[in-house]
Amino acid sequence: MKDIRIESDKGFFGQFGGRYSAEILRPVLLELEEAFCKYIKDKNFLNEFNDTLKNFVGRPTPLLFAENATRELGGANIYLKLEGLANTGAHKINNAIGQALLAKKMGKTRIIAETGAGQHGLATACACARLGLECEVFMGEVDIARQRPNVFWMELFGAKVTPVTSGTKTLKDAVNAALREWSERKMDTHYLLGSALGPYPFPDMVREFQSVIGRETREQFNEQKGGLPEVLIACVGGGSNSIGFFSEFLNENSVRMIGAEAGGKGDKPGENASRIAGPGTLGIVQGYKSLFLQDDEGQLLPTHSISAGLDYAGIGPQLAYLAQIGRVEFTSEKDSEVIEAFKFFAKTEGIIAALESSHALSSCIKIAKKIGKGKNIIVNISGRGDKDIFITASAMNDNKWFQFLKDEVKRHEQKNK
Ligand SMILES: Cc1ncc(COP(=O)(O)O)c(C=O)c1O
Questions:
Q1: Is 114 a catalytic residue?
Q2: Ligand 1: which residue has its CA nearest to atom 6?
Q3: CB-defined site of ligand 1, < 6 Å
Q4: One CATH from 3.40.50.150, 3.40.50.300, 3.40.50.1100, 3.40.50.2300 for 58-89+207-394
Q5: Among 194, 208, 368, 380, which one has the highest count of C-beta atoms within 10 angstroms of its own C-beta?
Q6: Residues 6+ apart with CB under 8 A from 316
Q7: CA-CA distance, 295 to 315, in Å (whole number)?
Q8: Distance between CA atoms of 321 and 77, rounded to whole angstroms?
């Protein structure tokens, strides 16, 4: 009997998970399951994966003792796992490399992906450039507008970025577009899904490729401090950085785990993306059963977050299960708290955290004070915040930044006259 806290039982974590896909995708999902189950135990494949993580991605990423922040907050010791220092600036690259290598083993020559914040699209485009695969990324028009820098880099890597104009023109619509494309072109194409959700085997596969975060963290903490931390905190969009970070510790009952969701602007529907800390209800969407922000008819509700990577209406099935059994707790962090946490860690530690990761930092500030001195918290900094400068500068009302943008536009226009 499998321990479904750690891995699924044929795709199910209790009532969550499954493979509720369109009939047309069944053969390709079965093919993927077979390849994943084979190669995840294959020594040569794992050597190639680990080699690429070391030499191309830049692993291991550091575990930093945030001593200034610890002193200023006057509570628990705070450690930061710096995934933002990985190539392309976020944890997404771990999964992108894993799946791209697997796709090659399966004889696929083309990769498609969805992206919200652009970090997963960027990581996928990067992996494809490195491994010589054709790449097409589906991205909502709204996300393209607010994450232009990542679109620029994706195209530089040779990827085709296809705007999605249906629905709310954000991540959920990009997932639908990618699934549609996959069902129309399966032979040469692998759909490289970016979070620990979707139909089986994606939730297990993405967790396995991201579990390097937790393994490294455990080893580094044991080396630096000895033993186990008391608390782990990660932000939760679909759930890939958090489950990759938590998975190594799930059997350690003394380790408390906290997932920080997007509290957005307020508690009303459409103002946030808190599914577990908020009113998520059971549903089947995009091939898996989990908790979703949805109306009475099962239509996904609009969401909001200051961070483009946390505004998804669903959550990975393993996390939904871990919440149900009380193994992982969830908090909801407001946009305004997130900006304050972002500024505090920039000032005290010289870290530019992604706005997504700053949700975990916001939760950390509250918990460090509560649990007190002598205890240890590790926060996963899932990405770096350079990509967010347009949003962050606007939230901080930095008028000098706006003047700079205006001057840049003028310079560009004059040059092209
Ligand atoms: C930096 C960063 N962190 C976190 C997330 C959320 O995704 P997940 O919950 O799958 O880690 C994203 C999504 O784009 C991201 O870019």
A1: yes
A2: 237
A3: 90, 116-117, 119-120, 195, 235-242, 309-310, 354, 356-357, 382-383
A4: 3.40.50.1100
A5: 194
A6: 195, 196, 197, 203, 206, 238, 239, 240, 243, 290
A7: 16
A8: 29
In 202-272, where does DSSP find H-type helix? Answer: 202-210, 212-224, 240-246
Helix (H) or strand (E) holding 233: strand 231-235
Tokens of 262: 């997007």
Residue nearest to atom 1 of ligand 1 (CA): 383
Question: Which of 3.30.830.10, 3.40.50.1100, 3.40.50.1970, 3.20.19.10 would CATH assign to domain 12-54+91-206?
Answer: 3.40.50.1100
The model carries a pTM of 0.97
